[in-house]
Design a protein that fits this description.
The chain is α/β, with parallel strands linked by helices and 267 residues long. It has one domain (2-265): Nitrilase/N-carbamoyl-D-aminoacid amidohydrolase. It has 6 helices and 16 strands. It has helices spanning 16-27, 50-56, 64-76, 117-120, 149-157, 174-185, and strands at 2-8, 34-36, 79-88, 91-100, 103-109, 130-133, 136-140, 162-167, 188-193, 195-200, 203-208, 212-215, 219-223, 230-236, 245-247, 250-251. The strands form 4 sheets. A 6-stranded mixed β-sheet has the order 5-4-3-2-1-14. It has a 6-stranded mixed β-sheet with strand order 6-7-8-9-12-13, with helices on one face. Strands 10-11 form a two-stranded antiparallel sheet. α1 (16-27) runs parallel beside α3 (64-76). The N and C termini lie far apart (42 Å). Bound molecules: acetamide (ACM). Acetamide binds next to loops.
Length: 267
């Protein structure tokens, strides 16, 4: 069994060291192969402008935050998927990092920026791909990517068995919709959402919590409460994600008719 879960918490805006300490002190007692953290877990979310985003973002190669998380992965012998404000030369991305005892394994940069994020971040430029951890094929997507079914589908047809989904959700639709994403692709998904609010001089944004783990066939394994810290790990039978046979005569992937779907790929 693969032990995977999430840590839902309330990052304080701009307090990177505080948020890092909160994550490290909580995860020290976790027994897991993989933990998913929220989107932008260390900086907070509601930036004033691009300059502020740039000032708080870090290059993972030289980041003290990433170094501390990798040290934690070594100590605990587990893997993390975390949201991260990523600086690269003159660009800044809303990213998800896959970290493990061996270091930074993969960076995914959010493809579909939500609302004012378009003012703070550059659009993602990394392909949707699959990474293998302890024999489990992981796909990564970030928050608003959920509303584009193409994202989960692209990951699933490449073999992803478990979708890691760091989030800072402000709308209420995603959690329920992820049950359908998991049903239609026969995959597991861990949505790790933050809670609380970013109260800034330019306004306030509230986040909806309710982090969750969903199994193939759209089965909700666990959903956290809306507004409290939640650390949860489930034993996942990853083999369930290999069964795409819906009925004796219906295979969810082999029955697709992509020759009729070309409208999907037009600009
Ligand atoms: C979102 O993509 N953070 C709503």
């Amino acid at each position: 069994m693969f032990k995977a879960g999430f840590f839902q918490f309330r990052p304080l805006f701009g307090k990177v060291a505080h948020n890092l300490e909160k994550v490290i002190s909580t995860l020290r007692s976790a027994d897991a192969d993989l933990i998913v953290l929220p989107e932008l877990a260390f900086t907070g979310y509601y930036f004033k402008d691009r300059d502020e985003t740039f000032a708080l973002a870090e290059d993972p190669q030289s980041s003290t935050t990433v170094a501390a998380l990798v040290a934690l992965c070594k100590e605990k012998n587990f893997y993390l998927v975390t949201g991260f404000a990523e600086k690269k030369a003159d660009k800044v991305f809303n990213s998800a990092l896959l970290l493990g005892p061996e270091g930074l394994i993969h960076t995914y940069r959010k493809l579909h920026l939500f609302n004012l994020e378009k003012n703070f971040f550059d659009p993602g430029d990394t392909p949707l791909g699959v990474q293998e951890v302890r024999g489990v094929k992981l796909g990564m997507m970030i928050c608003f990517d959920w509303i584009f079914p193409e994202v989960t589908r692209s990951l699933a047809v490449q073999g992803a068995q478990l979708i890691c989904h760091p989030s800072n959700l402000v709308l209420d639709y995603c959690q329920q919709t992820m049950l359908s994403r998991c049903l239609e692709n026969a995959v597991f998904a861990i949505t790790c959402n933050r809670f609380g609010a970013d109260k800034r001089p330019h306004g306030e944004l509230r986040f909806t919590g309710k982090s969750q783990i969903v199994a193939p066939r759209g089965k909700l394994l666990h959903r956290a409460r809306a507004q409290q810290d939640a650390m949860f790990v489930a034993e996942i039978d990853i083999e369930l994600a290999n069964d795409k046979q819906m009925t004796p005569l219906n295979h969810q992937f082999d029955d697709r008719r992509p020759e009729y779907y070309d409208a999907l790929c037009r600009e």
